[in-house]
Specification:
heterodimer; A: 357 residues; mainly alpha; 2 strands; 1% strand; B: 253 residues; alpha/beta; Rossmann fold; 4-stranded antiparallel sheet; 8 helices; globular
């Protein structure tokens, strides 16, 4: 009997692993599609030649300087928002947890706007691509992170000291979000016209700004963050059972919760400071993945990361093609796609998944 | 041999002491019931023993080693705790829930031994038939067994349970206590905070009576008398002795 129980467990684990590998393959295919697709037709051979040969063709310029950074940044931003959402949901034991619903995205957007207007991280000369030229992406990220912490600490305070119900936490998040929207509006009121245009940019997500510079900063934050979450997957899993049980299982509850929240906030802040608020990714992707493979963090974390990349990259592909040659900001699209998906998930009952009997 | 020793424990919230100067020694391999009125500090005492709450004064020793000296994982291999209620927001399967009990032993990912121990624990608690069922779809009794199974998968020497029979029907109450009795006879020290005095009397080897955070009395069944129970709860009772068993009937008028 013992053997059959283990066999059944292994069978299900294999399926979860297959989902992770499937997401990876899907992501790689979409990356290739994302590079070939666009106003200038580029073939697979062109991509190969662009990356591996030294020729200075225009196609090489498009692949290396426009398509590749945009596609890879989309993947990383999708990963960042989805994984942050997944771990926030688990450690706060709150299905509505996500960078957006907890007010962290709005706080980051405020921080980015604050850096541009008050701290002078962007100069107001016009460039070809943007109204405001960003002189100092690090300062913007730091400011976004700093303000995202304000939201994070209020949420942690409510979770820890007020023993808040999931509803209270989400309401707090909505209040914090509104507060920071008000803050951003206040900055807009005092901003000059060109600055105003750049603040508006952060209120809806757009991947158009992606360059290698942003990609490297994203990479430097997201990869260690992802490794940290994976390293702590048993701790995060234990926290889902409740603080007391987690403690009894050998988890340092306070330390884990604060560290995971801080790292998830930092990850969100970096994505938001570069690309603006891309709503629903952090909420919908973890739920879709939970529905498909359950809430075992060992598989949930990598699968959510990969599937988050798939989700944002596909959304961006649609955003680039739906009213081509114009490009719709991806944040608008993720909301249009994410909101109905989330409603369907709610109607069909949360907490269910395809593997559990 | 002394397994757990409490020395002059004080614990309080915001300056109000919930536990006052508790000293006691628990014997190994016994089923010990902590009883007392609501708010007498039963759950708090259990949480202090498992370091979920940190005592403000006094010491807790396990085999003569103070619990603050243990690393979190090492303590989790010695003591397991089953809380009164637990509502995981994201349901896991029964197998995954019990496997989580192996967490203190798992380095990176579960080895075959961890899976075997999980499967054996499921079998022991008659849960193998529902190993892939979501814990949200189980009855109260089954869920309680799953949480006890997870604690057992930790392979602890000491098992603490807060109201393990609350919300269970009579049959499941008996099942759970029989199981705990079995475990204690296998050498595990089982300490339960429990309200049902009659159940406690049928299964426990030893009693700790708490009143307003103080140790009111302790000892075997012999300490349970009309006088002690009336003073502990401020109600009139009849303690009936029948073939070595004790039963407590409250007087309603």
């Amino acid at each position: 009997m013992n053997k059959s129980v283990i066999k059944e467990y292994k069978k299900i684990t294999t399926r979860k692993r297959a989902f992770v590998i499937g997401s990876l393959i899907m992501l790689l295919l979409l990356i290739t599609l994302g590079i070939t697709f666009g106003s200038s037709q580029i073939s697979f051979t062109d991509i190969f030649n662009s990356i591996f040969s030294g020729s200075e063709s225009s196609k090489r310029q498009i692949v290396l300087n426009i398509r590749l950074p945009r596609v890879l940044s989309a993947v990383l931003a999708g990963m960042a928002l989805s994984v942050s959402g997944a771990v926030m949901q688990s450690i706060l034991r709150n299905p509505l947890g996500s960078p957006f619903t907890l007010g962290i995205s709005n706080a980051s957007a405020f921080g980015a706007a604050f850096a541009v207007i008050v701290l002078g991280a962007g100069s107001t000369q016009s460039s070809v691509f943007d109204a405001v030229l960003i002189d100092n992406p690090y300062l913007i990220t730091i400011s976004a992170f700093f303000w995202s912490l304000a939201s994070t600490f209020v949420i942690l305070f409510m979770a820890r000291f007020k023993d808040a119900s999931p509803e209270t936490m989400i309401l707090t998040g909505i209040i914090m979000g509104s507060l920071f929207i008000a803050g951003t509006t206040a900055l807009e009121f005092f901003a000059e016209d060109v600055q105003l245009a750049s603040i508006v940019f952060w209120t809806f997500g757009d991947l158009g700004r992606a360059s290698w510079n942003e990609f490297y900063i994203l990479l430097a934050i997201i990869i260690p963050a992802l490794l940290y979450f994976i390293w702590n997957r048993w701790n995060i899993q234990s926290l889902n059972t409740g603080d007391e049980t987690a403690n009894s299982l050998g988890v340092n509850v306070e330390k884990t919760r604060i560290r995971v929240m801080l790292i998830a906030s930092l990850t969100t802040a970096v994505a938001v400071s570069f690309f603006g608020i891309i709503a629903f990714v952090g909420l919908v992707v973890p739920h879709l993945v939970r529905r498909m493979i359950g809430s075992d963090e060992r598989f949930l974390i990598p699968a959510t990361a990969l599937f988050g990349g798939v989700f944002l990259l596909s959304s961006d592909l649609i955003a680039r093609s739906i009213i081509a040659p114009m490009v719709l900001p991806v944040g608008i699209l993720t909301s249009f796609i994410g909101a109905p998906i989330f409603i369907i998930l709610l109607i069909k009952g949360r907490g269910k998944n395809l593997w559990l009997k | 041999m002394v397994k757990i020793e409490l020395q002059n424990l004080d614990f309080g919230y915001n300056g109000n002491l919930v536990l006052k100067n508790i000293s006691h020694q628990f014997e190994k391999g016994k089923l010990i019931s902590i009883v007392g009125p609501n708010g007498s500090g039963k759950s708090t005492l259990l949480k202090c023993i498992d370091r979920i709450l940190k005592v403000q004064k006094g010491r807790i020793l396990i085999d003569a080693v103070e619990i603050s000296k243990f690393k979190a994982n090492e303590l989790a291999k010695k003591i397991a705790y089953v809380p009164q209620s637990e509502g995981g927001t994201f349901p896991a399967s029964v197998f995954d829930t019990v496997l989580l009990g192996r967490k203190p032993h798992i380095q990176w990912s579960p080895k075959n031994d961890d899976l075997k121990i999980t499967a054996a624990t499921l079998e022991k608690l008659d849960l193998e038939g529902i190993s892939q069922k979501s814990i949200n779809k189980l009855s109260g009794g089954q869920r309680q067994r799953v949480f006890i199974a997870r604690a057992l998968a930790q392979q602890p020497e000491i098992l603490l349970l807060d109201e393990p029979t609350a919300n269970l029907d009579l049959k499941h109450q008996l099942e759970v206590l029989k199981l705990l009795k079995d475990l204690s006879s296998q050498g595990i020290t089982v300490i339960v905070a429990i309200h049902d005095l009659n159940l406690a009397l049928q299964f426990s080897d030893h009693f700790i009576l708490l009143k307003s955070g103080e140790l009111f009395a302790c000892g075997g069944k012999e300490i349970i008398s009309n006088h002690t129970i009336e003073n502990l709860y401020d109600v009139k009772v009849n303690v009936i002795h029948n073939n070595g068993d004790h039963f407590i009937i409250p007087k309603t008028n």
